[in-house]
Amino acid sequence: MSQPLVLTLRLDAASETVLTELRARYFPKARNYLNAHITLFHALPSSAHTPMEKIISQIASRELRFTVGIKNPFPLGKKGVGINIASHKLRGLHEELMEEFAKERVVLTEQDQRKIRPHVTVQNKVGQDEAKRTLEELRESFEDRPGTAEGFTVWRYEEGGEWTHLKDFPFSLS
């Protein structure tokens, strides 16, 4: 069976650096394979790579870079912490991607069929006490900030949990 594809939203370098530093500080080192990212779809079928690439490319090529809010830390269940990403534009793009994937009969997992709750995971799969301490610490120190959505990135999820970068789809500058 082919490995699934992951679609993420790419942020500007300054925002990615701030969020990746949080991830490096709080995410379990043995599981931290990636820089900070916003996952839009977690497990797209690799068999649908060609129609998906066409859809993603068409949408990205017509979109302008846009501002997102990087906001308030929140609990990810009982064993992790995320940072909310606020953007009506992003929610609209996610819905459009879902509609276009449906037209091409791209089969989505149950998780990927849900409305998106955009966030960056800065901690996951730790004990409840550690997650609670992290959340309290971040709530005291984290400052909301704007970020810029710069495009989409497609990854291949590998056995063992690592991701392989496949392709970037930048948004237009103007």
Automatic annotation (TrEMBL):
Matching Pfam families: 2_5_RNA_ligase2
InterPro entries documented for this protein: 2H_phosphoesterase_YjcG-like (IPR050580), Cyclic_Pdiesterase (IPR009097)
Superkingdom classification of source: Eukaryota
PANTHER family recorded: PHOSPHOESTERASE SAOUHSC_00951-RELATED (PTHR40037:SF1), PHOSPHOESTERASE YJCG-RELATED (PTHR40037)
Official protein name in the record: 2'-5' RNA ligase family protein
Organism listed in the record: Hyphodiscus hymeniophilus
Lineage: Eukaryota, Fungi, Dikarya, Ascomycota, Pezizomycotina
